[in-house]
Each structure stands twice: as structure tokens, then as C-alpha cells.
Amino acid sequence: MADAELAAEDIAPLGPGFMLWQVTNAWQRKSRAILASLGLTYVQVVLLSGLKHLAETDEAVSQASLAHHLGADAMMTSQVLRTLETAGLVRRERNPKDQRAMILVLTAEGADRLASALPVLAEAETEFFDPLGRREQKFLKSLRKLWRRGIREKKA
Is a pLDDT exceeding 90 seen at residue 137? Predict the structure, then answer.
């Protein structure tokens, strides 16, 4: 057994949270490596994708509505959006219906960068989750259940 590998019985006391943390770290390393060439991070892709999706259904996407839609931390969303704005991928504009409010707009460059990132990310996800085989759908269903519960608890 390699030094970095732990036997199942050695990890068991740490539980599923430990395993989730380890898998999350592995996914973050992989996504960082593949998105670096596009000058994006995984969180940036998530926010750009969420903005694109919301903009297709709602004409005025606020920073708060984007964070809420994604179940993301409002402060983190704000910080990442500032970076995306500086990079010219997102613009903040006055809401024509409420001059006091700002709305988010995905720029043409942001849409192009997102369009480049999504297929690369999809391929990486397929490769990363391939060991699950046919169990992947059950795994995703379980993750969604945990995610929804986390969102409900966050609201409480």
C-alpha cells in the first residue's frame, strides 16, 4: 500500500464527511488544472453559468438573486463577481425599472469564455465520476438530497 493510501479500517472512524472532503479536494484539483488554461476557476464558471441561466428567464438578475439561486454565500459571490467584472466577463448596470438597484449582465467575452469552459468541464466530470459507472445517478440523487437539506437549514 502506498504511503498516501489509508486502509478502509483506518479511515472508517472519520466517517463519510472525511471522504466527501477528500473527494471534493480531488475534484477541486482536477477542475483547477483544466480551467487554468481558460483563466477561470470552478466557482467563476458556476457563477457565470448561473447568471446565464437566470438571465434567460429573468431580465434583472441581482447579485443577491444569483447567490440565492445557486445556494452560494453572498459575500463570496460578491468577491468573485468583482473579479469577473474586472476581467470584463460581467458588467453591473442600473436596473431600468429601479434606478437604485444594480443588475448583472454577462458580457460577450464572458459568454464566450463560459462556452469554452463548459464542454471541457463536462468532459472532466465524466472522467472524474467514471469509477461510479451506473451508480452515478444514484450518487447524484443522494448529493442533491443533501444539498437541498443544506439549503433548507441555511434558511432556518
Answer: no
